[in-house]
Description:
By secondary structure, the chain is an alpha/beta fold. It has 9 helices and 7 strands, in the order αααβαβαββαβααβαβ. It has a 7-stranded mixed β-sheet with strand order 3-2-1-4-5-7-6, with helices on both faces. The longest helix is centred in the first third of the chain and has 32 residues, at 40-71. The chain is elongated, with a radius of gyration of 22 Å. The mean pLDDT is 94.
Amino acid sequence: MKPDYKNWMPIQMIMGFSLGAVIFFILSLIFKENILAVSQGWNTVLFLICFILTIVMALISVYMYMLYRAFDYNGGRKLSKEIIEKTAKFSKVVEEGKVLDIGCGSGALTIAVAKENPKSYVIGLDRWGKEYASFNKELCEINAKIEGVSDRTEFIEGNAVKLPFEDESFDAIVSNYCIHNIPLRNRQEILLEALRTLKKGGTFALHDIYSNGKYGDMNAFIDKLKSKGYEKVELIDTTDKFMKKREAKLYFLNGSGILYGRK
């Protein structure tokens, strides 16, 4: 039996936009043929609006399907699998260390980290929102059992904005493409909240899209951490390490990097 890590591009979104394209196409035909007996002028306007929306919805659907194919764990590219496994390589911790994975989704990174650190205990945290309805705690636990790490993993519901852990609870903290999705003006505050739970001497590897629009000035943030006494902090560009540069541009992953260091 294989684990099911789902897909970063929810199939429900593809189906929703595809259905929207069909509906607007039908409406455009209705207005074109004047089936509703609307005035000729309004028929033309409404036909053009519905036809344009048909094209837009169809193009979005096609693009989303491209993403779905690229991220599919069972597909040809398996981009998400590659990114997860390479992110896990940065998670080396002390013997019998305790690790936190923020935004665990279907449990992929939590499980990969547990495999990478055979004596560690890894906690995966997620709020499992309705926008990713196929991801849930039960799925994570099933995947962990299939992968043989259920005795060293745990999955809990929680919010990255306010983590349910005491200061200095973990030997390592990891995350993958999670925090940029949180609708908070200052995402650097979420990073600080994550690092609050890291033990002195602990490591962190937070993979995300660190564009200025999403995170602000990360160089200033790194300087801030160093001024607080962090032993090592760097932002490692992953757009040409975890994927091809053209893929980063095509899939809106430009700015991807790992905020990596030691407290």
